[in-house]
Design brief:
Strand content: 15-25%
Strand order of the largest sheet: 2-1-3-4-5-6-8-7
Radius of gyration: 19 Å
Helix content: 25-40%
Number of strands: 8
Structural class: alpha/beta
Distance between the termini: 77 Å
Length: 203
């Protein structure tokens, strides 16, 4: 009986490992960058396809509606639709797909909420993109377990950032002190594991 129980447990564990391996492989495929596609349709369209393929949402400049259906992306002249906001809540975007962000010039808002593949290298990569350094003014990083203070402090490169909300980041034990020190001049408030920053108003 004990041997049978062990065999069942082993089979279940193997099945779980295979399932995780399959989904990890599929998510990596979704994040693969097709540079020819970017050239063909432009950076905004290609980035929108990547984000929606991975379960994120986008909002285009001049529109109130969020797009989440890959097949429902608007058609029209290339370059007409510019991504203004990205909501990656519970999506599978990962570092290997971040090259899609290089050509985006109008992104103002980014939300990373419960993104299991978002880690420090993702924030570092995002913060190094010159276009985003100039355009992004609002950002949220919530419940991303692989993000630490090392990634958060790189966000100081986003020169136009006016609002930063951090919450439930277990890998960022020193986030209040580090954020205050490196992302200035901002006002911040902290409650438990939450940090909310706003650019100091100049008079």
């Amino acid at each position: 009986m004990r041997l049978l129980s062990k065999a069942v447990q082993c089979a279940v564990s193997q099945r779980e490992w295979s399932r995780r391996h399959f989904w990890g492989w599929l998510n990596a495929v979704f994040n693969k960058v097709d540079y020819e596609r970017i050239k063909a349709v432009g950076p905004d369209r290609a980035a929108a396809e990547w984000l929606l393929r991975c379960g994120a949402k986008v909002r285009f400049q001049g529109f109130d509606r969020w797009h989440h259906d890959y097949n429902g992306l608007p058609t029209g002249p290339l370059g007409r639709y510019k991504i203004q906001a990205i909501d990656a809540t519970e999506s599978c975007i990962m570092y290997r797909g971040f090259d899609h962000l290089d050509g985006l010039k109008h992104v103002e808002e980014i939300k990373f909420n419960k993104c299991i593949y978002i880690e420090d290298t993702c924030l570092e990569r995002l913060s190094s993109i010159e276009n985003l350094q100039e355009s992004v003014y609002m950002m949220e990083v919530v419940s991303c377990g692989n993000v630490t203070d090392k990634g958060i402090v790189t966000l100081h490169k986003l020169r136009n950032l006016e609002y930063l909300f951090l919450s439930d980041l277990p890998g960022n034990q020193r986030q209040t002190d580090d954020t205050e020190q490196h992302i200035a001049p901002r006002l911040y408030t902290s409650t438990q594991n939450t940090v909310s920053l706003k650019r100091r108003q100049h008079t």
